[in-house]
Amino acid sequence: MDLNLQNKRALVTGSTVGIGYAIALRLAREGAEVVLHGRSQGRVDDAVKSITSEIPGARVRGVTADLATDAGARRLSAEVPDVDILVNNAGIYGAKDFEELTHEDWTRIMQVNVYSGATLAQQHLPRMLERNSGRIIFISSESASNIPVEMIHYGVSKAAQSALARGLAERTRGTAVTVNSVLAGPTKSEGVEEFVRGLAKQRNLTESDVEKEFFTLARPGSLIHRFATPDEVANVVAFVASPLASIMNGGAIRAEGGLLKNML
Questions:
Q1: Within 13 Å of residue 252, how many CA atoms lie on the same side as its CB?
Q2: Which of 32, 81, 195, 264 is 20 to 30 A from 218, comparing alpha carbons?
Q3: CATH code, 9-187+231-255
């Protein structure tokens, strides 16, 4: 299927690995001009090299900025002043008991997962509205609805992200601009792979055994009963970013393997 993304300009934050990289790769494969983003110049360079080697002629460049600071988010806005597609994918997570969460923990997770995306949207939404064309997509999580007890601060940040997307969508009323969030489920990204590998080694199990146990005990509601791949999430995001998804606006679009039982 041709997603009609040729000559579209896209910025994907947190795109040197995992879901972000898969999204950037898919958009580049569809003919979009893509700006990759990461915190490390080395990783950004490696990601750019990887995509251009896989897709000869791909128009890809990279920008470094630390979105854990407001200055970093504003620097990224200045470096990439105008795009057709903004994918706010950069995010952090980590298990920590609620009683142990510090003010710094809350500030950091909200800055990276919510505030940085708000800053970038504040930069790009007015330009999109002015030309009556554009897509803003927040990569949220099923944790926005199923708040995980082991990382409540993460779930709160993802719920805020989806609420932000819905609020911004209200500002697009009567235009061809859309703002959506995508609720990704547990995905086999770099961090998850390392966690599974380490746990398997520690408990003398196979990685497949660890995955099965996770979905039996921790996420029994999953209908696919496995981790999603970054490519599977990227396929959904690429469609939402395309002109073919023009009717999808203000939604929390599910790509979580059936974990959420609510139908609406």
A1: 23
A2: 264
A3: 3.40.50.720
Q: Are 149 and 106 in contact (CB under 8 A)?
A: no
- The question of whether 154 is a catalytic residue gets the answer yes
**pLDDT per residue over 154-186, tens digit each?**
999 999 999 999 999 999 999 999 999 999 999
* Ramachandran bin of 208, using left for φ above 0, alpha for ψ from -120 to 50, beta for the remaining angles: alpha
**Measuring CA to CA, which residue among 20, 18, 19, 252 is closest to residue 145?**
252
* CATH 3.40.50.720 residue ranges for the chain: 9-187+231-255
Q: What is the pTM of this model?
A: 0.95
Q: What is the 3-state secondary structure (H, E, C) of 61-93?
A: EEEECCCCCHHHHHHHHHHCCCCCEEEECCCCC
Q: Which residue do the tokens 């969508």 mark?
A: 169
Please state, in angstroms and rounded to a whole number, the distance separating the CA atoms of residues 175 and 9.
19
